[in-house]
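so ive been stuck on this for like two days lol. basically i have the seq below and the ligand is flavin-adenine dinucleotide, smiles is in there too. i just want the complex predicted, nothing fancy, no docking runs or whatever. if the output looks off dont worry ill sanity check it later, just need somthing to start from for the group meeting slides
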Amino acid sequence: MNGGKQMYDIIFLGGGQAGVFGAYEAIKKNKDLKILVLDKGRMLTQRVCPKEKLGTCVKCPTCAIIYGVSGAGAFSDSKFNMDYRVGGDVHVLTGKVIVNETIQYVADIYKDFGFDEKPSGLEYNQVMLDLKKRCIENNVQLVDTPTMHLGTDGSRELYTKLVNSLLEKGVEFITERSAEGLIIENGEIKGVTVKNKKDEVENYFAKNVVIGLGRSGAKKLMEMCEESGVSYETGAVDLGVRVEIPDLVMKDINENFYEAKMIYHTTKYRDKMRTFCSNPSGFIAAEKHSDDVVLANGHAYKDKKSQNTNLALLCTKTFTQPFKQPFEYATAIAKMSSMLTGGKILMQSYGDLKVGRRSTDESIARLNIIPTTEDYVAGDIALACPKRILDNIIEFIEVHDKITPGFASSDLLLYFPEIKFRSTRIKIDANMETNIKGLYAAGDSSGYGSGLNIAAVMGILAVRHIISK
Ligand SMILES: Cc1cc2nc3c(=O)[nH]c(=O)nc-3n(C[C@H](O)[C@H](O)[C@H](O)COP(=O)(O)OP(=O)(O)OC[C@H]3O[C@@H](n4cnc5c(N)ncnc54)[C@H](O)[C@@H]3O)c2cc1C
């Protein structure tokens, strides 16, 4: 058994957005704290995706895009939402005021590291008012929150500076360590167990542990909770498609809102549909969780631009008794899709979907739009997507077309599946503390986060409670 002999004040299990901002807050408030960040991936500067050179995904055992210090945020488009209503719902535990105040606090940290952008979406012009009116006319809720946009490249620069400052202040990072279990005695956290690259078990000890494993580690966290008696409940699954459409169609939204978050309840099933993570002039990305779970995603760079906008259309599905495996359900759908494509994303044009015909490279080549990825197989989404979800997606596309004319055209490409794994909700209090004393859960894997803003807020709130003890 390897591992550290020393006792840490705080271990962050997962060095993503929640972990990095939590560590920043801890060392800022008390420079003498002994802090350790453990992560399955590598340090940010070593996170290199071979696809950048080879042009195609080579399916690394630990994907550098998903795993590694700074988390999913490091390669994300980094739209930072300045409002508690977007990025999670931890406010149901803490109240809205503290979340909004802490979001502002995080924005000020961004500023300290050289990112100072005026958020978009603050003042309404006539185009925005007309758009909002069309949303109202079509029963769509427009969640119009101010947003800052770092871009995928800008976000890398910012996180590099942030992580370097943590290293300078003595925060220890041990990478390529995969979470295995929790060390708990008499209802109190004592440390964590991880596995190194050689598959050897290591123990690290601390009085406080903040877990932030992100979406990529959500399943592992659920297993650990099950094993260690950490209370959790099953939550919802967000399942849908990422769509890509010429910028031209999205011009009004892109130029005025950058991203317009829309929520719609379908008339057929009364299910919740929402737009998520819109990337004007962006690129489609394949998010590889394992060989047979490859999901669609998207991002945008500050400098490199395409001529397409991509965004997710997600259906939030909550399940009732006796079913309690939403994670496995969504994974099974992803596997079925991968089965059809041999491990790529499944893509179909809306025109082909509507007439019940599979897309082919030839049918796609006839469109105005040029896909921004090659990690797809043109096919038939209806063979892998459950009817209810597909009906909801189609209804939402048609409604979106009334707000954004041209949206429901043949040039809309649908990439399947996009899934947000947040199916487990850890039972935490307003301080992010679980039923195990000293064990905190933050960010996406807690089930309360789905964006950079809320992950950072949760990491910071957990640390504030630890320091107050
Ligand atoms: C392509 C993409 C684009 C996005 N764009 C945006 C955006 O524009 N705006 C926005 O607000 N949000 C965006 N998001 C979501 C955002 O990145 C996440 O909400 C945020 O990073 C969550 O922070 P976190 O700390 O909870 O998890 P993460 O940042 O994902 O960090 C989790 C960490 O845990 C580590 N880990 C995982 N499993 C294990 C394990 N078993 N053992 C040890 N370590 C492990 C990972 O390596 C990672 O470092 C995007 C996500 C993706 C994938």
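The two ends are 31 Å apart (CA to CA). Residues 126-145+236-420 form one domain.
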